[in-house]
Structure formats: C-alpha cells, structure tokens
Specification:
It contains four helices and no strands. It has 103 residues and is mostly helical. It has one domain. It is globular and about 40 Å long. The two termini are 23 Å apart.
C-alpha cells in the first residue's frame, strides 16, 4: 500500500473518531461509555491494519498522538492546516519508521 493511501486511510479514521466525539459533545456531553469504547476499539483495530502494525497498543497510539500534538503546537504551523492530516502524517511516518519500537 502506498504511503499516500495509508495517509488518507489514517486521516479518515481520525476524522471518524473526531466526528463521533463531536456528536457526543453536541448531544449534551453525557457520553455513552459503551459507544465511546466501541469507537476506540474499532479505530485502534483499523489503525493497526492500515499501518501494518498488529501489535500497536492503545498506550503506544496515545503516546504517538500526544507527541504529534506537542510538535504541532510548538511548530507554529498555520492554523488552517487540518489536525487530522497532520496527525495522519505523523503516525504514518513514525509507526512505519519504527516498526519494532513505536513508543
């Protein structure tokens, strides 16, 4: 799978998760924990498959996303850039570059 296709797939997964979160917040902010858990489980499994990293743990993914967010915050990049696109680029680059040691 080409890097561009992987990037687009990861971006799509992140955007779907963001949409689910926004829906919960807009409906009163009382999240359905079962639904949230299901969304996280599905997204993690899709990311594992897309990134070809079946051993990726939730903790490793959280660490990668935190590092990406810190890098984005400190980079002073243009606010118009999409968060999901930046995160997808970071995940694709770092998971594939460090396939044996993600975090």
């Amino acid at each position: 799978m080409s890097c561009s296709i992987i990037h687009q797939s990861v971006r799509s997964i992140l955007e779907e998760g963001s949409t689910a979160y926004t829906t919960v917040v807009e409906t009163g902010g009382a999240p359905n924990v079962d639904y949230a858990g299901y969304c996280c489980h599905v997204a993690l499994n899709r990311l594992r498959q897309t990134l070809n990293h079946p051993d990726l743990t939730a903790e490793q993914l959280e660490g990668l996303l935190r590092r990406a967010a810190r890098k984005y915050d400190s980079s002073g990049e243009d606010e118009r850039r999409e968060w999901s696109s930046m995160m997808a680029r970071y995940l694709t680059k770092h998971v594939n570059a460090n396939s044996h040691s993600v975090v």
